[in-house]
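Revision sheet: structure tokens.
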Amino acid sequence: MTPVPAPFRMAAFLAAVAALALPGLAAAAPIKIGVINSMTGPEAPIGENLTNGIKLAEEDVRKKGVDLQVVWEDDTGKPQISMSAMEKLATRDGVAGVVGPYTSACANAVAKLAEKYKTPQVIPAAAKEDITRQGYKYVFRMNAPADVYGAVLMDAVLALGPAKSIAFLYENTDFGTSTTKTAKEYAAKKGLAVVADEGYSKGSPDYRSTLTKVKAASPDLVFMVSYVADAILLMRQAREIGLTPKAFLGAGAGFTHPDFAKETAISNAVMTSTQWSDDVNWPGAKDFYDRYKAKFGKEPTYHAACAYESMRVIAETAAAAGGDRDKTRDGLKAGKWSGIMGDVKFEDYAGFTNQNNHQMLVLQIQNAAFETVYPPKFSTKKTVYPFPGWK
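Predicted:
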């Protein structure tokens, strides 16, 4: 038999991926995809968004005729449990690929095992830069990494007027420290003096002493990295002590959660970076928001959108590959997609491997609603700046 040249094999594979965009065309065999997520534990409020986004992707993939079987694993937000889940999925369940985990610590731990077992992993929302800077061939990331969270916020606020100083307040986790590290580097490039640098243990009952230190430094900008519960408590106590910078900047995560926005006494005019918003012109973004709200009775965060697109991309790619892990990996590397996250392509750039070079947005909470205010081409409302003070 005459061997088929590699370019023709890849062309045939990509044609199979494209065919899945048409109803009724699918792989014959069941396709197993594993999910590792924080379904219980302290990060469960955001984990719920990932779970729900994946469930909507399941519906859409199955409508295309794919016999998709999702194997769920709850890591409770702990890296060791994440690793055990990955071992099980890769060796016992025989999945074609994995979506997750959520937190940076868990995703980084699992990435090593994805590479070891040659099992494609699509990370939906973990931000630590190092995850996709280790040269792994089987690890892909949908969301923009940590360095973009701070950069897009500072670009947005500095476009509104001058600022001279910034304070950093962040949880001392992989997500908090990596996001703050790159934000401090970007602040230096922008000529912002760092007047406070305060890490904290997440879940603490009282942050007033730390916030008092920040207030004493009189920063123009306050940059925070927190999950939901801490984001709410920090802002409540910032109000108590009368901290009033020109802008409060939240690095996604808890600051993008509807529970935070509903705290109108503390959330008004807070700006946050995000991976997604329903009011951008990415294909299907508004429809996804409407479906999510109708099905689950609440608004989705960007985590839901990232998880939806991660599952859709890996499931369709695995189906085109007949569930073969290596072919699925090749398909993820070569493919291009357009959907609710905009254009998706896993690229190698700036030291990253298999990283989607995603455009982040800036939201501002106005009257308990998230409004897109940056970049200008995506903005739907004008930014309230400077911070108008506490009511």
